Amino acid sequence: MTGYDDRDGKIWLDGELVDWRAAKVHVLSHALHYASSVFEGERAYGGRIFASRAHSERLRASGEAIDMPVPWTVDEIEAAKAQVMQANGLSDAYVRAVAWRGAGEDMGVSSARNPVRLAVAAWEWGAYYGDSKTRGAKLDISKWKRPSPETIPSHAKAAGLYMICTMSKHAAEAKGCADAMMFDYRGYVAEATGANIFFVKDGEVHTPLPDCFLNGITRQTVIGLLRDRQVKVHERHIEPAELEGFQQCWLTGTAAEVTPVGQIGDYAFEVGALTREIAEAYETLVRR
């Protein structure tokens, strides 16, 4: 498989479609030095991006949260995504929209005079966790914690917030795991490195309260599916000691979709009936 910088196809960049290999930025772009960047990961099924508008709205909201207003409207971002899908002849695909502070008059912490740029790319991408959808993913427990919302804009999907996620995932993969579960700054269960987490106990679902990490669009969708089925959902703080008592576990995210978890550290979970039911229901919903 070739690198992501060396492919055929088109990428939407600042208002026009350009050849994939020509979609470049300057080495002195502010985002490269100070992480002034926000992004969205989206999936298209049968030519339709699931929850597309919600993603575009969140991209703009994330930009506002890091004092980087994105100078494209939701409608313009939606049109850019449609152009990329059509130009690359894609039906089932992963779509990445990213906005960042480019190179300009500022080259320090301040970047108000630098332009905000926007790109949209799309490509075919299979299961994020490989065969974990059938056998259950194996997770490490990260040594890094999700920070307090007093220290970061935790509700933004901003690039800089993922640094400890990358470090955690690298450490997990070195141990033969697919991902890592993270605690928050208070010691409560938080999320995986790029996915929200759910647990099942005695037919009821428990999921961490997203008060210091991203309340994912897939997370919200799955909670809706559960409540439609009259399954009780508890959004609350979860203590580490509770992991031993949960029977099932799964991850949610645009890339992860609904992925069962078979193990977190020393704790084992079954890939049970409710996990499979919700995974199938989500698959049906996104392809409707």
UniProtKB/TrEMBL annotation:
A Pfam family that the UniProt record links to this protein: Aminotran_4
Gene3D superfamilies: 3.30.470.10, D-amino Acid Aminotransferase, subunit A, domain 2
Family membership: Belongs to the class-IV pyridoxal-phosphate-dependent aminotransferase family.
Required cofactor names: pyridoxal 5'-phosphate
Source species, domain of life: Bacteria
Catalytic activity of the protein: L-isoleucine + 2-oxoglutarate = (S)-3-methyl-2-oxopentanoate + L-glutamate; L-leucine + 2-oxoglutarate = 4-methyl-2-oxopentanoate + L-glutamate; L-valine + 2-oxoglutarate = 3-methyl-2-oxobutanoate + L-glutamate
MF terms in GO: L-isoleucine-2-oxoglutarate transaminase activity; L-leucine-2-oxoglutarate transaminase activity; L-valine-2-oxoglutarate transaminase activity
Record-linked PROSITE patterns: AA_TRANSFER_CLASS_4 (PS00770)
One BP annotation, GO: L-leucine biosynthetic process
Keywords (A to Z) from UniProt: Amino-acid biosynthesis, Aminotransferase, Branched-chain amino acid biosynthesis, Pyridoxal phosphate, Transferase
Protein name: Branched-chain-amino-acid aminotransferase
Organism: Rhodosalinus halophilus
EC number(s) on file: 2.6.1.42
Biological role stated in the UniProt entry: Acts on leucine, isoleucine and valine.
Keyword presence, Amino-acid biosynthesis: yes
Pathway: Amino-acid biosynthesis; L-leucine biosynthesis; L-leucine from 3-methyl-2-oxobutanoate: step 4/4; Amino-acid biosynthesis; L-isoleucine biosynthesis; L-isoleucine from 2-oxobutanoate: step 4/4; Amino-acid biosynthesis; L-valine biosynthesis; L-valine from pyruvate: step 4/4
SUPFAM superfamilies: D-aminoacid aminotransferase-like PLP-dependent enzymes (SSF56752)
